[in-house]
Amino acid sequence: MSALKTQVGIIGAGPAGLLLGHLLHVNGIDSVIVENRSRDYVIDRVRAGVLEQGTVDLLVAMGVGAGLQRRGLRHDGLYISFQGRRHRIDLADLTGGKAITVYGQNEVVRDLIEARTATARPLYFEAACVTVGALDSPNPVIRFRHGDADHEIQCDFIAGCDGFHGICRPSVPAGVLSTYERNYPFGWLGILAEAEPSSDELVYSCHERGFALFSMRSPTVTRLYFQVPPEEPIDNWSDEAIWDEMLERMTTRDGWQPHVGRIIQKGVTPMRSFVAAPMRHGRLFLAGDASHIVPPTGAKGLNLAASDVLVLARAMKAFYGRGRTDWLDEYSDVCVRRVWKAQRFSWWMTATLHRFPDETPFDRQRRIADLDYLTSSRAAMTSLAEQYVGLPAEVSFESAGL
Ligand code: FAD
Ligand code: PHB
Fold first, then answer.
1. What are the pLDDT digits (tens) for 131-167?
2. Which ligand does the CA of 52 lie closest to?
3. Rounded-to-integer distance, Cα 341 and Cα 338, Å
């Protein structure tokens, strides 16, 4: 058994864990990151694509924005499509110059793993049997098996950044966390296709047959999604059937439609809204998907993970630098307020753009009226725009040592 000590033990090398590790590094705080999957698996997993303005600014301020600045695609607007027409919402004009950037989560993760490796601070991949304990004590521990060796790491704090299916949230004793949940009666079938994007900006389509979304990853790769039943087996869909459905739902009266190409990846994702609070128990702090999930329609999940760890890094910097504990105590409240605003926005985008299996003709007309109002009122477009590009972070970059 090898026994190690660190200041912050981080479970999970997704965006939350890797960003936190780097923010702590910048502040001279020691950490060990423990991930149960392989490096290739973590990098290749296809997920989010949209970074809020604040997330872009954060990555750049942390010194890990070079790839993003070179290969990220800045979008000043997006389209909402319904009844055969696309309506542009000018995000930059409505928010005083803010925008979103399309840069794959796997690129973000790859850049952060490279930055971590350059610091020579420990990052274990393929850790087995990961557990956390003594959460109420001054020295919580992480135990895991790596190769043939058992490890125990004694920490000052543990950051639970291990996603929705991780072990940290379930390690909190029963009765401590309140949970709030909503499951949706649909999921998203998503594909990556070798096809030049046919629009410079995203298109969110509300169609009678259900929701569809046009996005991209690069000048040669298109990313597309459409709404399917929640447990839909991907094998039910041949590539040909996927393209037929995509084109049916997305083609607008002016003839716009995505370019068709070879499908290089496909999968179905369930949709849920979930919050567990408080985001702390003793010396365990939960961040990112470990404590909250949003349906992907608002493109908020990765961005919330980033804002959580910014708040956590600020609190840890103040603890180690000045012995302050009040920011650690406030961590959950500060994050949860922003989380609920993102929950509300993601729920609203989802409810307005998707077809619910039990919806009545009244519900459908109301949804169309919602979209009609949205795309014809500057006030309504401004509200969408300021939330889509990201509400302001709750704390300054300076206070987190940047
Ligand atoms: P994760 O990325 O889940 O990382 C957790 C890590 O912990 C993983 O590497 C996991 O392997 C590891 N782990 C799990 N259990 C253990 C264990 N026991 N021990 C050690 N390690 C463990 N968000 C956006 O902001 N914009 C978007 O456009 C967007 N689109 C999306 C599209 C899809 C199809 C999906 C599925 C999600 C999308 N999201 C989007 C959400 C976004 O991907 C997540 O919110 C984000 O990955 C959260 O990061 P995280 O680090 O908290 O969790
Ligand atoms: C994506 O490009 O993967 C993407 C874009 C917007 C969303 C969700 C996912 O709302």
1. 999 999 999 999 999 999 999 999 999 999 999 999 9
2. 1
3. 5
